[in-house]
């Protein structure tokens, strides 16, 4: 049987005598691919959140780190597999994924809502004439870079990351670095579109305060009855990955709504009580045949607010003014 020293679930071993590379713990086969000058491997995720959901991991067990090499490897993967998008979780706690200890990407064959978002603000960056730059209309602040030249796109992304990691604007709560360390990074997502490379850089900041110990740019306390966990790559793109507890809790909420019962006397429904009462007040048409659909729609509305909370520049007057100042810094 296959056995190899392992460190985590993402560790894998190169091709052996049977010609197959394998995951270290399970022995499942993986496909090797060189990204940059390094061996990586990909396999289909056991979670299967969307069609052909991939995990792509470095052979070296090392912490995630977003930088020049990350972007270059994402574009290398796009060259090798243009049918798939590819992206990386951020490399900091709170705004990163659950596995920050092993450098890895996720991808697959799926069109997320974020990909369909239009460019709301176009701009140019001096020194990067081959790259089209813009801010897309999306709750999370996302810079979209497009080019037919990979090297030019990587250079432009390097510039954005360098500026963002050093940028502070306390008027909207952004502090790049303080005594607690670095706070700003990006969630990068790459794809090919109409023969060009397209790279989305979602701006992330993991700063906390006494009032918001889980993060300033994190789901607000009023939304945490639905979503309290980190917002990672997949959710940034518009797919909510919700905690399993909600299946039972929302079923109980629906039952109490239909029965006219109090939400406060049940540990499953009490955390949802203010929200549930609001939903009930706005949906007089609620009935057994539509209760599940109404609750799903309302959870979606909550998730859209979660994404708004994660946006470092809001789409209000103050946020637009602050965003324009950041664009000026990029230029």
What structural keywords apply?
twelve-stranded antiparallel beta sheet; 28% helix; 22% strand; two-stranded antiparallel sheet
What does this 3D model show about the protein?
This protein is α+β, with helices and mostly antiparallel strands. The chain contains seven helices and 14 strands. The strands form two sheets. The chain has a twelve-stranded antiparallel sheet with strand order 1-2-3-4-5-7-6-13-14-10-9-8. Strands 11-12 form a two-stranded antiparallel ribbon. The longest helix has 20 residues.
In brief, what are we looking at here?
The chain has helices spanning about 70-80, 150-165, 235, 245-260, 275-280, 290-310, 315-330; strands at about 10-15, 20-25, 30-35, 40-45, 55-60, 85, 105-110, 120-125, 130-135, 140-145, 175-180, 180, 185-195, 195-205. It is an alpha+beta fold. Helix 1 packs antiparallel against helix 2 (about 150-165).
């Amino acid at each position: 049987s296959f056995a190899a020293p392992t460190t985590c679930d993402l560790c894998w071993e190169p091709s052996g005598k049977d010609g197959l590379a394998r995951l270290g713990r399970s022995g499942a086969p993986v496909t090797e691919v060189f990204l940059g000058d390094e061996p990586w491997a990909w396999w289909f995720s056991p979670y299967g959140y969307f069609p052909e959901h991939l995990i792509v991991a470095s052979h070296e067990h090392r912490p995630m780190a977003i930088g020049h090499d990350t972007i270059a490897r994402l574009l290398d993967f796009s060259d090798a597999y243009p049918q798939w998008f590819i992206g990386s979780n951020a490399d900091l706690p709170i705004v990163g994924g659950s596995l920050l200890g092993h450098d890895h990407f996720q991808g697959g064959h799926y069109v997320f809502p974020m990909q369909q978002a239009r460019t709301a603000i176009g701009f140019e960056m001096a020194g990067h004439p081959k790259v089209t730059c813009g801010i897309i209309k999306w709750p999370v602040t996302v810079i979209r870079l497009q080019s037919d030249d990979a090297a030019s796109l990587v250079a432009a992304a390097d510039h954005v990351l360098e500026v963002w990691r050093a940028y502070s604007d306390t008027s909207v709560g952004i502090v790049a670095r303080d005594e607690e360390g670095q706070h700003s990074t990006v969630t990068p997502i790459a794809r090919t579109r109409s023969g060009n490379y397209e790279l989305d850089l979602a701006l992330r900041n993991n700063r906390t305060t006494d009032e918001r110990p889980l993060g300033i740019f994190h789901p607000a306390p009023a939304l945490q009855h639905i979503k309290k966990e980190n917002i990672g790559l997949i959710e940034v793109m518009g797919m909510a990955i919700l905690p399993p507890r909600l299946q039972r809790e929302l079923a109980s909420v629906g039952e109490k709504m239909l029965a006219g019962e109090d939400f406060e006397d049940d540990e499953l429904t009490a955390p949802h009580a203010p929200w549930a009462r609001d939903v009930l007040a706005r949906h007089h048409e609620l009935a057994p045949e539509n209760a599940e659909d109404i609750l799903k729609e309302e959870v979606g509305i909550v998730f859209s607010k979660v994404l708004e909370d994660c946006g470092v520049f809001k789409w209000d007057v103050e946020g637009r003014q602050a965003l324009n100042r950041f664009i000026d810094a990029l230029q």
